[in-house]
Amino acid sequence: MDSFAHTSKPARAQNARVKRTKAALYESLASLMLEKNVNAITVRELTSRANINRATFYIHYKDIDDMICQVRKEVLDDFSVVLNTHHTEVSGERPHSMLCDMFRFLERHASICKAFLGTHGDAEFISLLRNKLLDKCVTDWAKLFPSHPIAYVPEYFSVFVVTGCIGLFEHWIDTGMRQTPEEMAYMADQMFRNGIRFLQMPTPPSF
């Protein structure tokens, strides 16, 4: 039986209130990050926009920086779960499925991802996102193409793919997500499949 069934009604109500409070703070943080640098955001204006008193904010966070760190970790941890459900090197799964899930993830977390990836975004978030994608790509390409004649090529190809991926994420969000996650995944998959022919070259050209 689900352990949730054993949780008391007051505890469940408290959990629901915490979730609503944090959701309101997340949305307010995201909207403020679209307007100004994080360093310029104050607890007063954040809580005012979220319609939450400052005492409630301090129950959950020490300051704005602490909130940014916690939100960043939560989003990236959830993104890691998406990546880790795909095992290209084991199953031979095409990138399309993972790409679909990544774009769906961005769609579900659109407001905070737009804030983190935007003009006044969070450089640490982008760096960690890039590293997570890069680790996944390097691992997969190395196992899919173990005998490439130039050992470092799969790593460089991974950088190419990850940089392109993040660029697609940013542009899709910035332009209002006019395409569906499935359309974006198909387009990205086709781009990467054409690029992947480079890895399938039997020998490098002479320079």
Automatic annotation (TrEMBL):
InterPro entries: Homeodomain-like_sf (IPR009057), HTH-type_Tx_Regulator (IPR050624), HTH_TetR (IPR001647), TetR_C_Firmicutes (IPR039532). Coiled coil: none annotated. One of its GO terms (molecular function) is DNA binding. Residues 19-79 form the HTH tetR-type domain. SUPFAM superfamilies: Homeodomain-like (SSF46689). Residues 42-61 bind DNA. It comes from the Bacteria. Keywords: DNA-binding. This is TetR/AcrR family transcriptional regulator C-terminal domain-containing protein. It comes from Merdimmobilis hominis.
